[in-house]
Structures are given as C-alpha cells and as structure tokens.
Amino acid sequence: MYVAALLALLLLLLPWPAGAIVYVRMKNERGPTAARAGVGCLELLSDTYLHTTQSVQIESIVIFFVRRMSSPAREILLGYLQQHHTGYDEEQELGTTEQSNFQLKLMSDTRPADDGERRLAQFLDYKLTDYYVIVIDRFEALGRALARLSSTASFNPRGKFIVLYNNPNDRDSDSRLAHRVLLLLFIDHHAVNVLVAFAFDAVSYSVYTGDPYHGTDCGQMKPLKVATVVNGSFTSPVLAAAMINIPKVPPEMEACTFLLCTRVAPPFIDLDCRRGLELQIMDLLRESMKFGVRVSCSEMDRGELTDDGNWTDLLGMMRADECDIIAGGFNPDFDVHEEFGATTLYLQDTHTWFVPKAGPDARWKLLLQIFEVTTWQLFGCVLLISACVWRGVGQFLPESDAHRELSMCVLNTWCVFLCISCHNRPVCHALRLFFMALALYALNVTTIYTSILITILTNPPHAYQVDTIEELLAAGVPIGGRVDSEDWFMNDFEDDRLVSERYNVSSEFQPSLGNLQAVLEGRRSLLISRLYVRNTKYYGLLHGLTQDVFVTQIEMIVEKGFPLLPKFNRILSNLIAMGIVEKLWQDFVHNVTILDRIRRNRALSEEEIMAASPEVVLTVGHLQSAFALYGIGMCLCVVVFLLEVVSKTRCVGRWRRSTEDTWDGLYSFRLPETSPLSVALTTVCPGRDDPGVAPRWWVQHEGRYIAAHANGSQFYRSCAQRGLYHVVVSMADRLPAAGGCSYRLSYNRKGAEEFRNWPYRNLSAPSRIKVQQQRRRYVVTIKWEKSKLDIHVMNYCLAVSTGRRQRTLCQALGNSIHRPACDTIDVNDYLHRLSPREERKLDAAAETTIVCTGTRTRQVIRGMKPNATYYVDVFAIHSQHNNLSFLLGSTQVQLNRTRPTQLVEGKIVVGKLSTLGGISLFSFKVPKRSPNSFFKLHLTPCGGTVNLEVLKKKRRIMEVVRDVYYPRTVTVRNVRPGERYLIRVHEADETARLNRIQVAVSARDDFHELPRMPHNTTITELVPLRKCHSSTIAWFGSPEKDVTYCVYVFKLPKTQYYNNVKIPTYCELESRDVCNHPQFHNKHCFNGNEYNPLSLDIPNLLPEHYYTVFVTAISARGRSLPYKSVRIKTSPFCLESNQILPDGPIGHGGKGSLKTGATGAYRKLGGQRRRNTATVSTKNAGLSVKGTLKRSRKRPDAPKQSV
What we know:
Helix Hairpins; 10-stranded mixed beta sheet; transmembrane helix; secreted; repeat
C-alpha cells in the first residue's frame, strides 16, 4: 500500500501536457471502502458500548441477518459477522489482556416463525441475550427483525441494541430516522439501551441514543447525538465514550410519574387505596428514587391469557400501556413470568377456607348444663321431701297455721333453697333445727351452682365447629374464590378434583365485605387470604380452617423492559436484609390487633361495651323461662286491674276530681344566652289589701332543680346558663280562703344585675383600645386604658370571639370552652382561678376565649387565623364587690395577609418565603389571546428545597411538584386563556429556612428575553479525564445561537462535599460580589453555540480537593438562567512527577478550541499561587465538536499573563 501511494505521488509530479484531460470519479457509496468503514463503525461501537466489567460469565450477542438487503449494508453485516465468527487474533500485542469474547447467536427472517418453531426456540434457548446487533437499509426491516427477536423466550428488553442504518439513497434523514427507531424500541419493546448509527456519507456515521427519562417531559423519547464516527474512529474518543455510556435511567427521577394499578386486597391494598403494606413499600421505593406515582384502584383480578393471545383485567391494561406497575397481593405464576417481569418477593400470604365461627351454645341451656339430669332430679326429690317433712313436723307441734299448709311449706322450702328470706319462721326448736339444716344445705348447693355458673358464663361452651374440607363439602355449602387460585385444584388428587368441580369464580365469591357477610350468615364459603380477613371487621367472627390450602409469596408485576426493575429489586433486597419489611409487617399486626381494638373500644359507649360481652351479661336467651313467667304474671295483673276499674267507676271519678285539685302548674321559658336571671311570683287579690299566702314553687333547668321550694316571691341568679327553664307552682296548698286571688309569674333578664343601680357605675367612660399586628407570626398585641372608676381595685379580662360581640362577662363565660356552672359559682371566684399570662393562644374549638390579665392593661394573643374577623371586648371587674363587672371597651380585629405577587411574562420575580412563614404566593393570568392551553414556570430555589402547587379557585389543577432543589421548568397544562391561577410555593423542610425563590412564567414554548434551556440541564463530570490539577465537565447547550456560558468554580471543604451543602446559592451567581465570596475559585465565560454537547476543562485545581461548579446560560439580552450544579473532585495523585499544566488549546485546535492567550491566562503554572478573586472571561471561544480533551506535552511559546 505504501508503494502504491509513492507511485501515485510520482505520477502527480510528472509534467503533464497542456491538452491533458483529468477525469474525477465520484465517491463509490457501495464499494469496499464503505463496507470497511461500516464494519469499523460496528466494531468501534461494540468495543465502546457492549462491554460489562462486572460479568462473571460469557455474554451472548445476537447478530440479526435481514433478507434482501442492498449494498453496502449486506457487506457490512457479513464483514462484522465474519470477524466475530472466525474469532480474534491469537497474536495479540504484548501486555494486552483485554478480550471481548461473546457467545455468538445468528438469527434471520428468511423463514416465517411459526408457532411450532417459536415454541422450540423457547424450549432450547432460555438464557437471556445480552447484546443485539442489527444492520438495516430500510426502516421496515427493523420491524420484522424485532418481531422475530421478541417471539423468543431469550429476548431481553434490557439488553443493549446497536442498529446500523446505511442506505446510499438516504443521507439526510438522520435525526428523523433515529427518532423512529428509538420510538419503535421504546414503545413496542420497552428497550432504552439503544445506539443508532446513521451513515450520512460513505465512511461517516452519526451515532444517536435515546433520552426518555431526563428533563421535564419524562417518558418522551428524545434522540441525542452523542458521537460521530469517521473511518471506524471517533472524532472525539473520550467524550464520545463518556456520552455513550451515560446511564439512561438517572438515580433520581423527579419529573417522572408512573401509573400504579392496584387490586383491592387488604392488607396489601386497603379498600380506600390510601393505605396498605404494598403502598408503604412503594412509598419507600418512591422516596429512594424520587419519582412520582399515580395510583388507580379497581376490583379487577390479575388477568389470564385468552385463546387469542391477549391478556385480561390488569395484565391487559399493562399490555395496553395503561399501567406501568400492578400490585395487589399477586403471587408468582409461571405463565405470567413468561410474558412479564416481576420484582423480588418481599411478603407472603396464606389462603384457606373461611366458614362461620361457631358461637356459644343455646344460652337457655347454660343454666341446665351446669348439673347433670340426675342431679336436677335429686334436687326435686329433696325439695318435695323437705316440704313434706316441714308440714309433718308442723302438724305434730304447736306451730302456726302457715307451717301446717302444704302450699306454704313448699313456698318456704323453695325460698330457703334460693337463699331468700322467709317470713314464716318456726317456733318450736325441732322445726328450727330442721330449718337450719335445710338452710345450710341450700347455701352449700347455691354456692356451688353460682361458682359453676360464673365459670360457664365467662367461658361459655361453643357449638360444634366445622374445621375440615371434607366436612365443608359434606355440608353442601357453595364454595369458590378468585380465578388465579383455581389452578391449585386442577390435578389428579381425588379431594382436589371434588373441590375443582364445585369451585365457583363468580362475583359472589370474590373478596368483599358483602361476601364476607354472606359467609357469616352461612350461605357460602370463600377461599380467601387470612390477612384480608384479619384486616376487616369480620376478624374473630369467621373461622379459617386450621390447615392452610396454600402459602404464596407476594410480588409486583411490570413489563420485562421496565427500566426501574433492577433498582427495584436491589432496593427491595436491601429493605428485606435490613429488616424494614419485617418492621412494616409487625406494625400492621400491632395496628390490627391492638390499636384498632383500642380505637373501637374508645368509640363505644358503656352500653355498647356491655352488649359486646355477651358471655358475662345475662340476656333473654339465658332467662327465657323467667321472663315468660314474669310476662304471664303481668298479663294477669293487667286483666285484674281493668276489671277493678270497670267495677268501680264512681271511685275512679272521685279520684280523678281529687287529683285535679292537687295538680301542679308548669310554666316554661328559654334563655338564648347566658345572662342574669330574675323570676318573680306575685299574688293579686281584687278588693283586698292583704295579698294572701303565696304558694310553693320551684325552678328547674334542663330537668334539674336549681332552687329549693320556698314561699318567697323572688328568685335571682347573677349568671344563669342558657337553656330551657321550668317553673313549677304547687296548687295543692291553696287555701279555701284565698278564693278570688290570682297569681302572676314573670321573669326579667334585662338589667337584672345586683349592682345595676349603683350610682358610680355610669361615671366610667369607655376605654380606648389599641391593636398592634404581627402578621408574620399570627400575633396581635392589645392595649387599653385603665378604668376611671376605682382604678386601684379593678382587674381586667378580655373576651375574644369569632362570631359576635359579648355584652356582659356572664355571656362571655357561657360561650367559652370552659363554661362554668354559673348558678353555683361566683364570677370573681372563677376568674381568680385563671392565672394571668403574658401570652395566650386562642382555643380553636371555642367561640369565645377569655383571658384575664389582673391589673395589667396589655395582652398578647396568638393563633389568629388570617383574613378572619375577631371581636375583642374588655371587661372591668371590681375585686372588692362580687359580681360587679361592666364592659370597658370593644374593638374589631382582622389579621390581613400579603396579597399574591403578580407574575409577568419575561420577567424574573423574586418571592420571599420568610414573609408568610415559609410560603410564597404568586398569581398569573393567562393572556386572553394565548393560542396555547399551557403555561410554563421556571423555579430557581435560592438554597433549600421547595414544593409547588397550582390552584384555581382553591382547587388543585395538577399534582404537587415536590422536592424542587435545583432550577427546574414545570409545565402547567389544561389551562384556559383569560383565567387567573394561584401559584403557591412552600418549604419542603421546615427545619431549613429558605429566604427567597426566583420564578419566571411564560405562556409560550420559550421564555421571553430568557435563554432557551435544553431538556436535560444536568452537568456531568467526565471522570476518565479527571486529573490531579484539573477536571472536565460536559453539558448540553441551548438551542439558541447567540448564547454565552459562564462557569463558576467554588472550592468546598470535604465536610460540605458530603453533607450536600451548596455554597453559594443559584441566586447569588448574578451578584457583583460573587467574586468576593470566601470560597470563590475562578470564573470563565465563552460563546459555544456551534457544538452540542459542550465541554470545558477546568484547570488550576488542587489535588484531592472538592469543588462546586455552576453553569449559567446568558441570552443576548443579558438575562441568564442556571444549570443544575455539579460537584467535582480532583485526583489525589499525579500521573507524572514533573507534570506541568499546559496552556495549549483544548481539543485538536480548530474552530472550537480556546485561544492560546486566553487559555494561558486561565491556567496556572507549577509553583504559581491562585488568587481567590481571579476571574477570566473569554469571548467567542467554544469547544471542538470532536470533544477530545488532550493536553499538549510541549508548552507553546505564549506570553505569560497574570491571573
């Protein structure tokens, strides 16, 4: 090859005749050069991307051969296959140890994959494939290849894919075709680890990858160009390798929201879909990875595979991309694992048949089951013999007639048997001795009977309990359960076959409270989880068979290519190893068995508690015969009573007339407010000077006597409670001589005070009240003037009300939360118990709060709600005269709050969170002529973490955006032009106080006068380029052309690096004093609009030190927006002992490299000192598109510049 090149050079140097013609041949797009370039591109991408250092086994690679491909795509695939099929060179360079050996698999679409071949492939090839290489010349061929690959059991959506596209007739649709390829793999096959190489000429390829989980539009596939390959080599090897291997799934996914579809299955998913063991585990996963979850709840089952190859219920929803994750107590299933992925097993559940729990035996039998039948017969014989002996002894002895009648003797004996007092006591000593012996016998028997009765009532015997499946089947009760549990009985065992024949999967046999009620009533039996029953109110009412039917593990189900599945499994394994899952289980058992029982018992009244303990309380069931006899006796009494009434009508008439004369008079009135009360009873006798004798009368309040009867005419209470009052006047004591006299009853509560006629009371002028508000702390200070009347003995009390003013101190006491019994306590005595305090918090549950200050005329009130009206009344209380108080002054207080800040498009508004106690409010009105149904918010927290809420008429229109700790753009959708929306920003961490936040708004796609930011605003440190005195960062540039980038570097101590402390904040970057910050290192500004992504080498760093780097994008109008900051650190050791940092250009030189003079000013030589406030700005300097950040070993002769 060297000889051919030398000959060609000699021919060019030969003299050519003047009339010679030189023919220029076009570049051959299908020749061997293009094929070698394509094979080299595939080999380069394979070496860079298809490599895992953590693998302990030989990795597998599938090279797919697409039929009817054109040149050079066919030659590229055959060349790449030939190199991998023939192996690698045995003559490797000395000292090289790296080998990339793969288990090669070749697949093709030359023959259709029928069902038989597909099943054979699934049986033989069960190991998941690691890498895929596909070469195509048209997009349709990729669909056929993926359909063929996904039909096998070894298809791995999380594997790495390399798709090379080479079509000489298509050189311009690189980004569009890459987007189509990435969408096809992402949407249809859930694959994200994809590289697409597009040939834009014969030997050059543009390499694209997908970015679906970075930026604000999570879940939307965005093609990113990460490298350019020319003749089998990267134009920027280090930068391309770093960009290609950036993880597709970030460690934190704040902008991503996944759909969790759940099945109601307590205790894993409760009925309200707000609590449950699996929801708690999902919360732990969400907090670990910072993603959002939208939970939907349903009664659907997991789903089964139909004959047409589709899935039903929740699995069908997942296959239709309506769910990302499904949960609800699902157990592993082989058929499901063939089509879907599953998490690590984290809980277990047991299933058994549930039947009604056998209750206590018939209660009326308990009284008889204490003794055997022969014992009861013996008791009857003893009773009869004792009665006969009693009568016989009474006949022969001089006893009374009661001891000689058989009926009386039987009654007396029965009373003694029951240990009841008997009035007919014997007189003779012989019968007395017999009575004593019989009483001792009865006492012994009764004691034994009572003790055994208490034991039986405490632990009553139960009826027979069904506890085996054979007894359940013999009883003929319908049985059934979930569909996915029926597989356990489809086998050759006789018992399981009988269960399978009677197994019912209808809605009446699914887990629900209504079906559990049917089980309690004995209408059916369910195969259900023990944990489900334990989490319901039927726990303890239903009996589960002792032998469990099956025990299963619990898992969550996702698609095989779900990107978070490996991290889910790793986090779940750590949670299980640390015992957190076991802690959740123990908390559930504690809540169900102890806390719920305590909560239910607290809500029960005493009667309900007694009713809930039927074992220790006698009921009608225990005493059916006693109540029956009692009822018969009552009926006989009623019949005799009616007969007597009918037979004695005259007596009844006289009794009625006599009772009318002695009937008492009842009068009622109601006090709407607590106030003084005065009731007077006066006698009026026309034509007589003597008023006569006043009758006796009483006063009742709510059915309770508050005054004893008296013959006086006046009743007075200085402070009576509100409510219904009754005045009862006895007319039985009316004398006949009082004929013609009438009685007048009146009550008066207007001015009915003891000191209403005190002459000096009206001399007191109203006091002026001053109010000082502290809106930030919800604190109000109230001051007033002292009373002009008896200034030295006056005490003061405040009444703060939310509904109305208080006219008297008695009324205020009645409306307070500590309402006293005003008829039995003096006002002064009650107020003396309220110790004065300088500060008092309002009672939220009370209409009026009373605060006594003693002799002070100043009080601090806390706990007032904003925009609410409070009425403040000051009362003066005489300390030497009881019940003397009057209104000194009144005022009205309303705690106003700051209005929301108006947002204007194109302007950055700074909100203070300290004004409203950690909350900042903004208001934005969408322009009426806006063509869009959305607006964007750009939030920049000035240190700390905030949460964002968007409301319309006090209702949220979107989910709360939580944990915003870096500059972030939030899109608010489904808005209407002309309407106003409230934006509420509050601190996420109450312990860390955040002072300010910057907010910008726009109703368009971009922000007016602000630079356009990329979807991914993350700054990445290129770790392979990390040196002891420098480090390299890379980021995506703005889509705009004229944008300036400024890089700020701040030195961090080691403690701040690991404690996640940002110094300074994002808002301090535009400050003029940022260079004077004690930890400022340097600053660099340049224009880099021609290349994307951008990179920058940061020199002049110290070995093994930590730095925080900020990048801001500045538009041509001078407005700037920051990127997400990054923390970097330098290498602890230098590779070369005599290393001197160069001042040469970055990259290969060219358009994108920095100028020598500027670079020399930015770098420092060995031994130089860095000044803390050094700042260098280089205009119109960018980065090379190649991105190779090499350092020149020879220092160019450049003039030294001071830093």
